[in-house]
Write a structure and sequence with these properties.
- This protein is mostly beta strands.
- It has one helix and 25 strands.
- It has a domain of 116 residues.
- The strands form three sheets. The chain has a twelve-stranded mixed beta sheet with strand order 5-6-2-8-10-12-14-18-24-20-23-22, with no helix packed on it. The protein has an eleven-stranded mixed beta sheet with strand order 1-4-7-3-9-11-13-15-19-25-21, with no helix packed on it.
Length: 280
């Protein structure tokens, strides 16, 4: 009888926990803003994904989807606070989502943004993947736990995630990316541009991972100083790239140069292969 009672109690516990976590609710809201009043858009959310794309109209469209799981989920959607700052003097539109801390339910908010390609974007999430496509005037993306992807972007790019892969599909311009735990694959078109009234440079391309392989593809026309390093893996360089340099096996580092050496390529990982290849 005791065995039957224990089994029944365990079954009831499983059912009750299932009901506890099955209660979930979401709410979606969309707001638009005049794009000609801004040159920069900042969004910060927590426990949510961020997706951004470009549009041909003159509006900034931001769609936020709040979600809650746990007991009485729907009644707690308003616990998630959204604040908006419209600084037209400095040209900055900021949206900040505050996620409550709770031990009895989970909160989060996903963001989807459409805006003209000329605006700089600065997006941050504490737990979620990020994707941005088409932006032509620079971007900064940061996630504490999630994959970051960018595609067909241009300008100065800064990408950071503490846990996730980084994928770059044809970025044009300077770029830096770092992950503490993930692979990096990037296609970067380094272009020569003026840094002052006299000099021009191919800019920089820097990627770092503490645990994952790094693969970078660049045009063979690039001029750059090259530094590739791994503490546990292989280093390989495409023979179709006109590099001139040496591999130091003692320090697990490959230092080389290409073209006029005006740019910088720096790839480093502590655990994984490092590959530099020609961009087709």
């Amino acid at each position: 009888m005791k065995k039957i009672a224990l089994i029944t109690l365990a079954a009831l516990l499983v059912v009750s926990l299932g009901c506890y976590y099955a209660d979930e609710a979401s709410e979606t809201a969309t707001e638009t803003y005049a794009a000609d009043l801004y040159n920069r858009v900042e969004i910060e959310t927590g426990n949510g994904e961020i997706t951004s794309s470009v549009s041909s109209d003159s509006l900034i469209t931001i769609t936020l989807t709040k979600w809650v799981t746990g007991p009485s989920a729907k009644a707690h959607l308003d616990d998630i606070d959204v604040s908006v700052s419209e600084d037209t003097v400095n040209g900055t539109l900021s949206v900040s989502v505050t996620i409550p801390t709770s031990t009895v339910r989970n909160y989060g908010c996903d963001a989807d943004i459409e805006l003209p390609e000329s605006l700089f974007i600065d997006f941050k999430t504490s737990n979620g993947k990020m994707r941005a496509a088409g932006h032509q005037n620079g971007l900064r993306l940061s996630s504490s736990n999630g994959r970051i992807e960018i595609a067909k972007t241009a300008g100065e790019a800064d990408l950071f995630t503490s846990n996730g892969d980084i994928g770059v599909d044809r970025h044009t311009g300077d770029i830096a990316g770092e992950t503490a735990n993930g692979e990096i694959y990037a296609e970067v078109i380094m272009v020569k541009s003026a840094v002052d009234s006299k000099d021009t440079t191919y800019g920089y391309c820097r990627f770092m991972s503490s645990n994952g392989e790094i693969t970078l593809a660049v045009p063979d026309s690039v001029g750059a100083q090259i530094r590739l390093r791994t503490s546990n893996g292989e280093i390989s360089v495409d023979p179709d790239l006109p590099t001139q340099g040496d591999y130091n096996s003692d320090d697990d580092i490959y230092e080389s140069k290409m073209g006029d050496e005006s740019g910088e390529i720096d790839l480093e990982t502590s655990n994984g292969d490092v590959t530099l290849k020609k961009l087709d």
